[in-house]
Amino acid sequence: MARKLITFDFDWSLSEQDTDRWVFEVLDPKKRRQMKTLKATVQWTDLVAMKMKELHADGKSREQVEQALKDMPFHPAMKRGLENLKQRNKDVDLVILSNSNQVYIQTILEHQKIAHLFDAIITNKAEWTEQGCLNVSRRVDPNGPQHNCAIGCSPNMCKGQELEAYVAAKGGWEAYQKVFYVGDGGNDYCPLLHLRSQDTALARYPRPLIARIEREGNLKCSVVKWVGAWEVEEILDTL
Ligand SMILES: [Mg+2]
Ligand SMILES: [Zn+2]
Question: Quick check: is 115 in a domain?
C-alpha cells in the first residue's frame, strides 16, 4: 500500500491569489473596500454572494468575471509539479479543500488546463443563472444541521470534517501511506489536527497558518515551511 493523498487549499496555496478578493479588485475595487469593513459582521461566503449579486446588478457580465479568474496569477512551477507527478505516479489522489467556490476553482483549473488532474474539489456551491449572475452559497446549508467545529472553522464549512469524510469514503486513513496538506490560512489549521505522525503539512510562510501552528501546536504531523510554489514542486518531484 503506497497510496498518497495531497490536499490543497486553493487561495494563496495552489494559486497565487485569493479568488474572492481578486475578482472585486479587478472588476470593482469599491466593493472590495466595502467587503473589508463588512466582513466583521457578515459571514464571508454570504458576503461574497451578496457582492456578486450587486456586481451583476451593476452590469458586470459573466464573461468579465471569467476573464478576471483567467487573469489571476498561477505559478507555472505548481502546474508543472502536479502534471509531472500525476504522469509519473498513478498512486496519488489530488484533492482541493477550499473556502472559495466551485465555479471560481473550475474556471481557473480549466484555463490552466489542469482540471483533469484532481480527484475531488470540496468547496462552496456556485452556479451561473441564465442572466449571467453567479449565485454563491455555503457548502453547509445555513438552514440545515451545522458542523459545530470547535477549532474555529467558519459556518460555511469545517475543513477538518470535510477531510475526514473524504478519507473515510476512500477506505479510511489506513488506505493512505502518507497524506500531505498544502495550506496558508488560519482555517487550514483544523484539518491538520487530523493528520498522523507520518503525514506532512506544507505551510506557506509568512501567512496566518504558520502563526497558528506556532501558537497552538498540538500537531502529530511534521511541518515544512515554504514561500514559493517552486518549493512545493521540489517536494512533489520526490513523490
Ligand atoms: Mg488559502
Ligand atoms: Zn473545523
Answer: yes
